[in-house]
Design a protein that fits this description.
The protein is of the alpha+beta class and about 280 residues long. Among the domains are: about 80 residues; about 70 residues, no CATH class. About 40% of the residues lie in helices and about 10% in strands. It contains 16 helices and five strands. A five-stranded mixed β-sheet has the order 1-2-3-4-5, with helices on one face. α1 links the parallel β1 and β2. The radius of gyration is 29 Å and the shape is elongated.
């Protein structure tokens, strides 16, 4: 880090004010420089911003910084003269992010930085059509723009919309099983999923606790075992052809016989462990 640094901005520098501020922030965020530098930093006019570092009055080198806020890839430094690179990484940027400068980072090319901006609640609706799906997932998680994101091309974004409980009537018909599973898990119209082609979707529908009389006839053992978690149809399930179903059914029957309380949802969440080794 520079100590007591001051910034001398060349008056002929034609970049917009936010670009100058971005450069100043990046300089403040430098983690380490292996060569000694003076506390003055001059930002010179250039198509690619050039930060010239001086030490003891003599130029030690020019570091060309690709500033992400106006269209680079991940922050990289091209170092002239074989000098050491300046490390400006994700953690460094986040550490200097504040309410005063967050607008700068909203334009960052690193999707992780833009996610951090969304997480801080800054101008979230401006990221609804962000090019990176993870940023759009963060927007959906914030509950913003769900009416748009429900039609997102990436299923992971639509999945986040489903988690928010928005448009379940539409998402229940989604072509992606992982999305239908979320809708089913939410307890939305379990009758829509009793015949779903995907086992995970039908299992997710069990969390509603409904239609157990239908699910007990399912062809997949894991579904019938899930029914046993509710203590439903145990007389039948303890004789099931599947060892795993019988294991769960006997476990629950034993709890009932001993008068022990049990939570079906907890059993559903741990069904793989219950069936392990059977």
């Amino acid at each position: 880090m520079f100590k007591n640094e001051t910034y001398v901005i060349d008056k002929s520098y034609s970049a917009a004010p936010h670009v100058k501020e971005e450069l100043a922030l990046l300089v403040k965020g430098y983690k380490s420089i292996k060569r000694p530098v003076d506390k003055q930093v001059i930002l010179t006019p250039s198509h690619s911003p050039v930060v010239t570092l001086f030490s003891e009055g003599n130029a030690k080198g020019v570091f060309i910084v690709e500033v992400l806020a106006f269209g680079g890839q991940e922050v990289k430094n091209r170092v002239a003269g074989g000098l050491s690179q300046i490390d400006i990484d994700y953690e460094c940027k986040v550490s200097i992010m504040s309410s005063r400068n967050i607008a700068i980072f909203a334009r960052d090319a690193d999707y992780r930085i833009r996610c951090a901006v969304v997480d801080k609640g800054y101008n979230v609706d401006s990221f609804i059509r962000d090019k990176h799906y993870i940023v759009r997932c963060a927007v959906a998680h914030a509950g913003v723009g769900l009416d748009v994101l429900i039609n997102d091309i990436d299923f992971r974004v639509r999945q986040q919309v489903a988690y928010k409980g928005y448009g379940l009537d539409i998402l229940a018909k989604d072509s992606e099983s992982v999305i239908r599973a979320v809708v089913a898990y939410k307890g939305y119209n379990p009758e829509l999923f009793v015949n779903d082609v995907d086992d995970e979707v039908r299992f997710a529908a069990l969390y509603s606790g409904k239609l157990l009389d239908v699910f007990i006839k399912d062809k997949k053992a894991i579904i019938r075992a899930g029914v046993a978690c509710y203590g439903f149809g145990l007389d039948r399930l303890v004789k099931d052809r599947s060892k795993r179903v019988r294991a769960v059914a006997n476990l629950v029957k034993g709890k009932l016989d001993r008068g022990e309380k049990f939570n079906p949802i907890v059993l559903l969440n741990n069904i793989d462990n219950i069936c392990k080794g059977v």
